[in-house]
Specification:
The structure holds two protein chains of two kinds. Chain A starts with a helix and ends with a strand. In chain A, strands 2-1-6-5-4-3 form a six-stranded mixed beta sheet, with helices on one face. Chain A is built from four helices and six strands; from the N terminus they run αααββαββββ. Chain A has one domain: Roll (Nuclear Transport Factor 2, Chain: A), CATH 3.10.450. Chain A is 38% helix and 43% strand. Chain A is of the alpha+beta class. Chain B has helices at residues 2-19, 26-44, 48-52, 71-79, and strands at residues 55-62, 68-70, 84-98, 101-114, 117-132, 135-145. Chain B has a six-stranded mixed beta sheet. Chain B has a single domain (23-145), classed as Nuclear Transport Factor 2, Chain: A. Chain B is built from four helices and six strands. The chains are: A alpha+beta, B alpha+beta. The interface between A and B is large, with 39 and 41 residues.
């Protein structure tokens, strides 16, 4: 009887622990740590774009992720990934990034600088971006992104 | 014992549901689309006071030329616009709701007169709305020029 009670007790503990883990995971925002983490994810994203590493990029983007490219094209996650694979980007760097938290959502603004070769010609593009991140299932994922060329 | 376990699990699930926010509804979607239309009317009328009610004080705004503005700067820019918009329309607007956050994508089309010359702008935009104290407020807005 004691063994059964102990087993039930152990099971209860495990179930409670499993139920509490998502609650703990939902706890991250707000705070400076969250901002640092998001900015680090931004840099990881830029690095993945530069090295055409779609496997590294995949967990950073929500499945429903939407992107507005510098030329105004509206793209889904799958389209962005395909674009990254086929692009000839040599350098992708983020500058002047700031993140503002709004509950479980963060708005990141910054400037991207992209160098590469297109149609056999080198190009340099500089644009302003806004990325929207959301804390979902214990991690930050980008839900939308837009880039606008700086021409002023 | 099994009953007690069920109750404990249910109690544990309730706060989780709250932290994730109430499920988005069609009414939220309509509300946000209405606010987008109100925004267009306010821009056309250069009505910064009306606009102020739609945006969060910490809003970031990125103009189609890449200029970055905060909420105060954006309101001032609308009030002092030299261009006179004759028609502002939004096309293909879609609201993507994530609980208390709404991301709107669409195409903004503005015709008007600036420095005596007619103009037409077509821009792809993304607006991010946050539900705060029962009101949807825009926290980020960005436009990128697209072909006419």
């Amino acid at each position: 009887m004691k063994a059964i009670a102990a087993a039930v007790g152990a099971c209860t503990f495990v179930i409670l622990l499993m139920a509490l883990l998502p609650l703990c995971a939902q706890d991250e925002p707000p705070g400076a740590e969250a901002v640092s983490r998001i900015l680090a994810l931004e840099n990881a994203w830029a690095q993945a774009a530069e090295s055409k590493d779609v496997k590294a990029m995949d967990p950073l983007l929500d499945d429903a992720f939407l992107n507005v490219a510098p030329d105004g094209r509206l793209m889904t996650k799958a389209e962005v990934m395909a674009d990254v694979k086929s692009a000839s980007v040599q350098q992708f760097v983020n500058e002047a990034m700031t993140a503002k938290l709004h509950g479980n959502t963060a708005i990141v603004t910054g400037i991207f600088r992209m160098k590469g070769i297109k149609d056999g010609k080198p190009y340099l593009q500089r644009g302003r971006f806004v990325d929207v991140w959301m804390y979902k299932n214990g991690r930050w994922v980008a839900i939308s992104s837009q880039a606008t060329p700086i021409v002023y | 014992m099994a009953k007690r376990l069920c109750v404990v699990l249910l109690l544990l699930m309730v706060p989780q549901a709250f932290t994730q926010g109430a499920a988005p509804t069609k009414a939220d979607e309509s509300r946000i689309l209405t606010l987008e239309l109100a925004w267009n009317h306010a821009v056309q009328a250069k009505d910064a006071k009306a606009l102020e009610m739609l945006i969060a004080p910490e809003m970031v705004y990125i103009e189609y030329d890449g200029a970055l503005m905060n909420g105060t700067e954006y309101l001032a820019s609308v009030a002092s616009r030299s261009a006179q918009a004759e028609q502002i329309l939004c096309e293909s607007m879609v609201v993507h709701l994530y609980g208390p956050v709404g991301v709107v994508t669409g195409v903004y089309r503005e015709t008007g007169v600036k420095n005596g010359k007619p103009y037409l702008h077509r821009e792809r935009f993304t607006d991010t709305w946050v539900l705060r104290a029962g009101n949807w407020l825009c926290v980020a807005s960005q436009s990128t020029l697209i072909a006419r």
